[in-house]
Specification:
Elements (H helix, E strand, L loop, with lengths): L1 E9 L3 H18 L3 E6 L4 H7 L5 H9 L2 E6 L3 H4 L9 H11 L3 E7 L12 H4 L3 E7 L11 E2 L6 E2 L6 H16 L4 E6 L5 H14 L6 E6 H10 L6 E4 L1 H14 L7 E5 L5 E4 L16 H15 L2 H16 L17 H14 L1
Parallel strand pairs: 1-2, 1-3, 3-12, 5-10, 8-9, 8-10
Antiparallel strand pairs: 4-5, 4-11, 6-7, 11-12
Length: 357
């Protein structure tokens, strides 16, 4: 098979973790006799510095011409600490989502046996937790208009807007995923307060009737947040709107014990984007200490969901699990007293494992 991938390392630790992920993909493609073609492009702060835009037209063109996008992270203290900055790196991510039509973010929340002791929750609560958060990406408060401040600057306002078709497409996506898993969907909203949430619930009830084999539950977002801590193993597929999803997916990520372990996918109308859920961690940039495993697992998601290469994706996941069992990991997840490996060392170990498998 021919694979054409756009590689967007981004800022901070992005280039380092991306190097590992690309090396792993190359090793898998070589082993399974696939032809890999990839090209690197700018996004985020580095793109602003070079072109003035956080998501340049050249980058968008490459993404549109590729079969999938492997993305690192964006963000820089240079812009975070400058309140007068008119263009910020994060605008590149929003622009990419909008222009590629990425209406759904898919985040698996999976526990790793070797990391359960690092979870803030009791082991009996998290051991075996395995659920998927599906977040709407292109609507809601983050994109609603009007948005702004009053002339005197003392009042600010945002507008939450959702249309029926936006809700339908992501709720159906959630049910389709649930049919491939444990056949349960949790629809999260705030229908007792918000008009947009009442539309979400109305549409979701209509769609649920088309999936009689799937169990449906409706949860207010505050209740869902509590239940994610109390009974994380009770969830299978959770679907919700943009801002609620932003918050709940970060809450869910903590359950595993490390932000450096979770991949994600953003899918929609055009090319899908695969990325780790963590940020650019600028304090670690260039130190060869960042955990590359979430990016490697994102590459596994890419192979499975964009190219239907299930065996190849599974081999990558096996390599990641094996590296953890062998304790060849970076300092953030290394056990107390154990050696911490550099980012590049973890990458070399993973490639070696794949080559010998």
């Amino acid at each position: 098979m021919n694979l054409k991938i756009a590689v967007l390392p981004g800022d901070g630790i992005g280039p380092e973790i991306m190097n590992v992920a690309v090396d792993v993909v190359k090793a898998v493609c070589k082993k399974f006799d696939h032809q890999l073609q990839y090209e690197t492009a700018l996004v985020g702060a580095c793109a602003i510095d070079a072109t003035g835009s956080p998501y340049p037209e050249e980058t968008h063109k490459l993404c549109m011409e590729s079969d999938a996008v492997l993305f690192g992270a964006i963000g820089s203290p240079k812009y975070d600490n400058d309140p007068s900055a008119k263009v910020r790196p994060e605008q590149g991510l929003l622009a990419m989502r909008k222009q590629l039509g990425l209406f759904a973010n898919i985040r698996p929340v999976t526990t790793f046996h070797n990391l359960i002791h690092k979870s803030p929750l009791r082991a009996d609560l998290v051991d075996g937790a395995d659920f998927m958060c599906i977040r709407e990406l292109t609507g809601g408060l983050y994109f609603g208009r009007p948005q702004g401040r009053s002339e005197d600057g003392n009042t600010a306002y945002d507008t939450c807007v959702y249309s029926r078709y936006e809700i339908e497409r992501i709720v159906r996506l959630a049910y389709d995923y649930a049919r491939r898993r444990r056949k349960k969907v949790s629809v999260v909203d705030k229908a007792n307060i918000l008009a947009t949430s009442r539309l979400w619930r109305e549409v979701a009830k209509e769609i649920a009737a088309d999936y009689p084999d799937v169990t449906t539950e409706f949860l207010y977002v505050d209740n869902a947040a509590m239940r994610m801590i109390q009974w994380p193993k009770d969830f299978d597929v959770l679907v919700t709107e943009n801002m609620f999803g932003d918050i709940l997916t970060d809450e869910g990520s903590v359950i595993t014990g490390s932000l450096g372990m979770l991949p994600s996918a953003s899918v929609g109308v055009h090319t899908s984007v695969f990325e780790p859920i963590h940020g650019s961690y600028p304090q670690a940039a260039g130190k060869d200490i960042a955990n590359p495993l979430a990016t490697v697992l994102s590459a596994a998601m890419m192979l499975e969901y964009s190219f239907d290469l299930k065996a190849e994706a599974e081999l990558i996941r096996q390599a990641v699990n094996a590296s953890m069992e062998a304790e060849v990991v970076t300092e953030d997840i290394a056990n107390k007293g154990a050696k911490a490996f550099h980012t590049s060392e973890v990458g070399k170990w993973l490639v070696d494992y794949i080559e010998k498998a």
